[in-house]
Amino acid sequence: MEDCSKSPIVVYTSAPYGPEKIRKGESDLFKTMDDVFYYTPEFRYNFGDFIICPYSCNGIGYNIFCISKNDKVVKIPNKNEYSGWTIPYGVTKYLRNACLKFKDFSWIEYLYIRYDDKFVRKNLNRKKCKILKKWNWKIMLSLSENKLTIQFDNKTTKTFNINKKLNTPKLLEWYESSKLEQSKIYLEIVVPLEKKKRFF
Questions:
Q1: How sure is the predictor about 3, in pLDDT bands with cuts at 50, 70 and 90?
Q2: Which residues fall within 8 angstroms of residue 171, CB to CB, at 6 or more apart?
Q3: Of 114, 138, 2, 140, which is closest to residue 69 (Cα–Cα)?
Q4: Tens-place pLDDT, residues 57-83
Q5: H and E: helices and strands count for the chain
Q6: Of 18, 50, 75, which closes a domain?
Q7: Torsion sign across C-alpha atoms 16, 17, 19, 25
Q8: pTM
Q9: Domain count of the chain?
């Protein structure tokens, strides 16, 4: 696991103007820090740091990356430069307290977390009912809306309001009920031949 207490930094690559600018198609393909350093001078970095890569393509845009394990970079879905960021599981799967790691970044809107993240342990789990790794639940926090979205292993997705009543037993109860086959009602109507014209 990576250190959750050290706050990430934000690094800009070259400006979107001049001969050194990075094209959108080039930064779209970034997978590792070696890819980044092919286009920009090297700099010190740590796990969880952000790279904002501006480009010029029908105006100015931004590709934003987060540095993950083993020098990999993970592209971050975002609305714009400092708004609506989503931190994907490709980063947070190495953290047991993702909220602490990214607490200073108000522009992060969504945060995927592990099944054993501190948020889950403190707010959802109960002594006799805990979310297990083998359940393969994909858990996402909506930090701005105070909501929790889970994609269960049967691909069913549900968003829950975060409150004192929400806990793992309640989540499991909802999940089990979602697997039940819905009741089917068959209705047979017998219409006399002489009255069929009223209906057809």
A1: confident
A2: 124, 131, 150, 160
A3: 2
A4: 665 678 899 999 999 999 998 877 778
A5: 7, 9
A6: 75
A7: positive
A8: 0.81
A9: 2
